[in-house]
Amino acid sequence: MKDINKDLENNFNKAEKLRTTGDYDGAIKLLLNILEKKENLLPALNSTANCYFQLNKYDLAEKYYLKCLKIEPENTILLNNLSLLYLKTKNFKKALSMLDSSLKKDYKQEIIVEQIAYCLSELKLINEAVKFCKKFAEIYPKNKIILSYYRRNLFRNGKFEEGLAVYQKETGVIELDDDKINIK
After folding, report:
1. What is the tens place of the pLDDT at every residue in 143-181?
2. CATH architecture assigned to 90-184
3. DSSP characters for 32-52?
């Protein structure tokens, strides 16, 4: 970390050690002390947000993640951290917005694609989910999570034949037991 004195750097390193060993309250005390002296120090803001997240203090975690994004709005790690918070709190609209921004900045994030498919499904944006999953099932043809959301949303959309075809890609087999399904 540049532009900080040795005392602040030492305190930050102590806070990180506390954070990584699970002493989130102890880490927060040190980090807030650092932020009193250097309020826009991105690593301290992000670590503070991470600690609050671990303590399930989501409102405070959000506050610090948003401060981070004001400093570095293009940072995909920060966008992904905030989207994870929104997913955890089931705020799918906000999560989708953050995930979409992150994916636009770095298109090669398979887990972000999975999370977007999840959000679209939870928001019941079925047509959007089908279109999105179809596109990314071509990019990640072996990703069972994307294929699963694709299949489920095809079924929700009444496209049973296409859904079964995706299911076959997903599992390699279609097993119906004694169920009778008419495919038109």
Report:
1. 999 999 999 999 999 998 898 888 887 776 445 555 555
2. Alpha Horseshoe (1.25)
3. HHHHHHSTT-HHHHHHHHHHH
